[in-house]
Amino acid sequence: MDSSALRTKILDLAVAAGDGSVTAAELAGAGYSLRDVGYSSLSYMRLIDSIENEIGVYLDPEADIEHYETIDSVTALVIASGTGADA
Amino acid sequence: MTTVERRTLALDRARAGTGPATWGQRAIWGVVTRLGDDAPRYNLRLDLPLAPPRPASRVLADLTELLRMHDSLHTRLLPDGGDGLEQVVDGGGELPVEVRACSAAEAPKVGGALMEELAGRPFDHAREWPFRVGLVECGGLVHRLVLAASHTAMDLWGEGRMLRDLRLIESGESAGALLLARPALQPLEAAELQASPLGRRRDEAARRYWCERLAAGPRRILPGPAAPDRAAADPDRRFPNALLRSPALAVAVERVARRLGVSDAAVLLGAASHRLARMSGSRDVLFQVVVSNRFQPAAAESVSTMAQEAVFLLTDADRDFEDAVRRTRSVSFGAFRHAGYDKWALDREVARLVGRGEAADHSYWWNDTRDPADGPFDTVERPRSPLGELLGRTELTWPTEFLPRANVSMAVDVLTAPGALELAMTADPAVLTREGMERFLRGVEESVVAEAVARGDG
To answer: Which residue on chain A is closest to B259 by alpha carbon?
Structure first.
């Protein structure tokens, strides 16, 4: 999976983990900032869970909060934590 | 006059199967089995008035549908004598139903007595389903439905889901339609996930996380130099139970959460950690935090026992309220992420740490029982008074005392009440006096309210 496909996958997982609280359009409107759309703690827990289940990467839940602020920073964290992203 | 009758609820062609018990089932089965005759204190109790009253045949048909929906209600647990525990989901069988007939005026009293009768004796998990049913009939209609369940069948979150599903079934929904709309993770499915390579990896990671925090945490939190002597000299000492009911806390916690960008649960746990650190002089504090383990949607719908304890270690908790709350958020993520594990295996590892004198004090418990779907201002109007004035409406009562509890210095439950938040606290009097308990509870409230006021939300 290249980094663009990985980002798309993480965006899909983030919307699903929001369980109806946020749409892809709302995230795009907020510059893909999870913080700005009021992403809940429960949603973060689900997202971390989903990333491990579906991408096979374990993210440190206690990593600095800025790693979890945007779709791009989460994507970067997944790559840094060891995914199959090609670039 | 009350008459006594026994009927049966027949289940057939329900889902069936066998497999290893889940982590949650193993954890709570181990606890209630060790307790023996004292096990009923873990039983869940429901005495539900039916309005309007309904025919018994209808009530039993609805309950049969409920059993069809949730496997845990017709599951037995069989130990193998070693480290194994098997869950057996019976596809058919009969559940005894205790029926009491009386006048409508007597129904509440008869219902209460029936509940104690059903919930007051231990379950034989190898031979019976972990669910008991009683009906209080008046003039041929059921006025009260009385349910008792073993904790092996469900935790408090599961009980909430069961009640919701029973109401939906009563309104005409079928088990099949409800499960189609909202799949609920069944215990056999959960056990399969836990036994997979991913599940085993998570179990190992969770136990490693636990042991690392226990090794790093404070050996004693509240100093209580006389505690071991008092505990030994007075093994029957009663543990007081304090209940703080605070409208101010309900309002302030929402405001602080919004301002700091964290959950209100993090605000409360952070405030408790900060207050405990300040009171005890221990900069680091450690709580065992009860976690629902219901993060994924199917798990959230599950009627079973999934809740387990996370180990929450907050360093430098005494430093600053805001800092403690902000770090509680990220530390909670880590702790909650590692709250699913094989408890029997963890207990062995913790015992080794304790034996070597390398384990932190892990006798402080935190259980935020609130359901995010039920807020304190759902049914009552949000107060408009300033927080300082609301503080004057706080009530502190001492409802009861408990028998001594092993490895409990302090246990706090967070509850939602109409128009208020409640903190229900139990503490070992050998560690903390009643005055100390009050100081802690009011301190948590004051910290949160002061933060809200300081941020201009007075």
So the answer is: A38
pLDDT in tens, B234-273: 777 899 999 999 999 999 999 999 999 889 999 999 999 9
Q: Is A65–B296 a contact, with Cβ atoms under 8 angstroms apart?
A: no
Q: Using the 8-state DSSP alphabet, how is residue B152 labeled?
A: T
**Predicted complex ipTM exceeds 0.85:** no
Nearest Cβ partner for B337 among A42, A48, A53: A48
Taking a C-beta distance cutoff of 8 angstroms, is the pair B442, B396 a contact?
Answer: yes
CA distance B86 to B101: 39
pLDDT in tens, B314-352: 999 999 999 999 999 989 999 999 999 999 999 999 999
Indicate the pTM of the whole model: 0.90
Looking at the complex, does the CB of residue A66 fall below 8 Å from at least one CB of chain B? no
3-state helix, strand, coil in chain B (%, to 5): 45, 25, 30
Strand partners, B4: B100
Task: Name the one residue in this structure whose structure tokens are 């839940």.
Answer: A61
CA–CA separation, B28 and B35 (whole Å): 11
* Contact (CB<8Å) B261/A35: yes
CB B386 within 8 A of CB B457: no
CA pair distance B341, B293, nearest whole angstrom: 11
Look at domain A3-80 and name its CATH class. mainly alpha
The predicted structure's pLDDT at residue B82: 81
CB-based contact B330 A46, cutoff 8 Å:
no
- The per-residue pLDDT of chain B, averaged, comes to 94
Q: B327: closest CA among A36, A69, A62?
A: A62
Query: Side-chain half-sphere of B146: how many Cα atoms within 13 Å?
Result: 24
> Which residues of chain B neighbour A49 with C-beta distances below 8 Å?
295-296, 337
Q: Which two tokens stand for residue A16?
A: 């699903």
What does residue B90 show for φ and ψ, rounded to 5 degrees?
A: -85, 130
Residue with tokens 């709350």: B325
Q: Structural domains in chain B? A: 3-193 (3.30.559.10), 198-454 (3.30.559.30)
E-only strand ranges, B380-419: 395-402, 410-417
pLDDT tens track for A23-74: 999 999 999 999 888 888 889 889 998 998 889 898 888 888 788 899 999 9
- Smallest Cα–Cα separation from B444: which of B428, B421, B419, B426? B421
Chain B CB within 8 Å of residue A52 CB: yes
Q: How far are the Cα atoms of A7, A53, B103, B201 from residue A86, in angstroms, in the given order?
A: 12, 20, 75, 25
DSSP B179: H
Q: Give the minimum alpha-carbon distance from A60 to chain B in angstroms, rounded to a whole number.
A: 7
